[in-house]
Amino acid sequence: MARVYNFSAGPSMLPESVLRTAQAEMLEYGSSGQSVMEMSHRSSVYDAIIKETEAALRRVLCIPDNYKVGFIQGGASTQFAMVPMNLMTTGEADYLVTGQFSGKAAKEAEKFGRVNVPASSKDKNFTYIPDVDAVEYSKNASYIHICENNTIYGTRFTKLPHADGVPLVADLSSCILSRPTDVSQYGLIYFGVQKNVAPAGMAVAIIREDLMENARTDIARPAMLDYKTLIDAESMYNTPPCYTIYMMGLVLKWIETEVGGLANMEARNNAKAKLLYDYLDGSSFFSNPVNKPDRSIMNVTFTSPSPELDKKFCAEAAAAGFVNLKGHRSVGGMRASIYNAMPAEGVEKLVEFMKQFEADNA
Ligand code: PMP
């Protein structure tokens, strides 16, 4: 077996020990005589799995009791619509546009009300995060929406926007569980699970109870797009993505028992990112375009001196076992996504490979 170092932006690597547990439990989960894939979601065995997965998420993120958790199909993109359909109670909201996904979220929200964009980093191709304290938020906004880590551009918010009494809604798809998060700072957090949490197939919403209870009443929402309907039914209004939830439980167990919680997770991630950024900063061949304080610790973008060399780099890296390093089609260059499950060794070896490529091609 030759497993590669997979730098994909998502779906992405899962911890090897998690995959091994899933493999060992594939044919029979516990003494149930069946695979989790085959189980009725209404069975007592499965009920224990979904309840423990939510409980583990609550422990790991220290989610306060006045927040509800929902496991919701349709990925993060469906959340782009659910957020305004449920929470845009005043008919308008503020969206900070710092990349493609926050742009898509804003565009989707326009279908359900007025979208204000009080700040954007489009002027510099999304290579920085606007100063959140200098932004003029709208008086009548129902919420302020951000994408906390910009997967494509490799930036992240290090400070959260705050306007008196206006809830913050944040897409944490590409940074959830990468470091401790103070959930009480948010009205709603959502994330697609396919980067740091599980195989693809679901998003998770963590919503402050009063926001869920006081959802907008001026539009009819399909039941499947109503937070209260889904969450009151304990994420079992319909058949949930059972296997993805089981895998999420295994990943959370890995964070709790093998990593030792999110403070350790953050230290690991900071060390991996530092290794790569330090090398990029010292290199006269590769470079990273992002404003330093806003650099993501999950997605590291870089370019070589030419598109031809970028292409050569990606091809030779793939042949050496470092795959999916090609940058997003909208920005070009390279991107190394170094999520939780990427071992430090993968980044160390990548840097060695980059040094050699620099020496051979400079
Ligand atoms: N938000 C962010 C920050 C993302 O990185 C992505 C996907 N890469 C999405 C939203 C869209 O997620 P999904 O494919 O689950 O709809």
Automatic annotation (TrEMBL):
MF terms (GO), sorted A to Z: O-phospho-L-serine:2-oxoglutarate aminotransferase activity; pyridoxal phosphate binding
GO cellular component: cytoplasm
One GO process term, biological-process aspect: L-serine biosynthetic process
EC number: 2.6.1.52
Binding site for L-glutamate: R42
Cofactor annotation remark: Binds 1 pyridoxal phosphate per subunit.
Top-level lineage group: Bacteria
Catalytic reaction(s) noted: O-phospho-L-serine + 2-oxoglutarate = 3-phosphooxypyruvate + L-glutamate; 4-(phosphooxy)-L-threonine + 2-oxoglutarate = (R)-3-hydroxy-2-oxo-4-phosphooxybutanoate + L-glutamate
PANTHER family linked to this entry: PHOSPHOSERINE AMINOTRANSFERASE (PTHR43247)
Assigned protein family: Belongs to the class-V pyridoxal-phosphate-dependent aminotransferase family. SerC subfamily.
Listed NCBIfam families: PRK05355.1, serC_1
Stated name of the protein: Phosphoserine aminotransferase
Protein source organism: Ruthenibacterium lactatiformans
